[in-house]
């Protein structure tokens, strides 16, 4: 069967539209397969995107593989599908396209001198790939019909905490303007510093918001006018994806994160969403337990990787014991210092 694999020109508006329409028609697609995501990552993190397209006879699209070439002085080089996404592996109609895209991606990694190639989700391209279904869990469920039904969908213990959050002196606002973006970044930056990880560049959040337009926004929770929790979410094909969210030190005692996610569920229903994708969390972490306590059933995320002969797998997992001292030191950094240094490091994580 005639098949060719090429790199798409994402600067061509008609090409982007054609790719987005094909992705939207695929049952297993995610927002991270969209060309808009690849372009936002390239713009926001100064990393190079390589969007592979498999075409059959007559130029008909039969598969795509969005790739981001990550270069970091600390974490090395890697080709990732897709950069800064939790999904975005091979998306194809037929098995022969899967194999072709996998081989084309590995050839590209070799040319770019990337010793590692990571695929987040999708089918396995062949025998040379290592399967990982132990590191990450996914949490997705349908939204309930209304707030009361949503409360009943939450297990009893967490429901009690949520009722306390709903009774607290907290207000909720939604927006995507500059003020909303600045507020979100302040909250999110403090949240990840407290966890010991570097914050992403402001340019990444701005680029994603611009790329997704009306299909992305920011929900912020305030206590006495002070922002204490905030989340940037994507909306696609009836699913809400709370993607970058967190709370300040004060959020825990105020149960502001509980209020934030419950408010987002109601907001998503108003937008016509029927599913809530709580994103991925590493197995055995507090984040995974938090989501399970909300009534979400964890499902393993299956990733694949391939490595050059003799090359060690790239490790960017903060649970790796070798990062224990660095994480402890990062938590003690002044916020201004973490916010200045963090984006320089995080854009090389991918």
UniProtKB/TrEMBL annotation:
Taxonomically, the superkingdom here is: Bacteria
Query: One Pfam family name from the record?
Result: Acetyltransf_6
Q: Per its UniProt record, what Gene3D superfamilies does this chain match? A: 3.40.630.30
Query: Which segments constitute the BioF2-like acetyltransferase domain?
Result: 158-292
Q: What name does this protein carry?
A: FemAB-related protein (PEP-CTERM system-associated)
């Amino acid at each position: 069967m005639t098949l060719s694999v090429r790199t798409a020109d994402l600067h061509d508006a008609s090409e982007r539209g054609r790719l987005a329409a094909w992705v939207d028609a695929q049952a297993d697609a995610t927002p991270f397969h969209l060309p808009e995501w690849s372009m936002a990552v390239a713009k926001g993190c100064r990393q190079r995107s390589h969007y592979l397209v498999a075409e059959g006879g007559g130029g008909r699209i039969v598969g795509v593989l969005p790739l981001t070439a990550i270069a970091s002085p600390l974490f090395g080089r890697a080709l990732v599908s897709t950069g800064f996404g939790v999904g975005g592996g091979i998306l194809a109609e037929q098995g022969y396209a899967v194999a072709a895209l996998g081989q084309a991606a590995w050839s590209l990694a070799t040319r770019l001198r990337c010793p590692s190639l990571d695929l987040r989700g999708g089918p396995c391209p062949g025998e040379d790939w290592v399967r990982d279904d132990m590191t990450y869990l996914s949490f997705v469920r349908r939204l309930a019909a209304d707030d009361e039904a949503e409360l009943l969908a939450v297990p009893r213990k967490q429901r009690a905490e949520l009722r306390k959050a709903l009774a607290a002196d907290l207000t909720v606002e939604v927006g995507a303007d500059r003020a909303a973006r600045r507020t979100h970044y302040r909250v999110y930056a403090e949240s990840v510093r407290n966890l010991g990880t570097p914050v992403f560049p402001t340019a990444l959040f701005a680029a994603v918001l611009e790329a997704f337009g009306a299909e992305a926004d920011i929900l912020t929770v305030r206590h006495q006018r002070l922002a204490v929790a905030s989340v940037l979410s994507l909306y696609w094909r009836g699913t809400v994806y709370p993607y970058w969210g967190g709370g300040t030190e004060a959020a825990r005692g105020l149960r502001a994160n509980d209020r934030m996610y419950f408010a987002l569920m109601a907001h998503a229903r108003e937008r016509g969403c029927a599913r809530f994708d709580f994103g991925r969390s590493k197995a055995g972490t507090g984040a995974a337990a938090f989501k399970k306590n909300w009534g979400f059933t964890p499902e393993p995320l299956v990733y694949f990787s391939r490595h050059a002969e003799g090359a060690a797998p790239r490790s960017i997992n903060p649970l790796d014991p070798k990062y224990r001292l660095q994480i402890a030191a990062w938590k003690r950094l002044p916020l201004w210092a973490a916010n200045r240094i963090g984006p320089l490091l995080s854009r090389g994580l991918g």
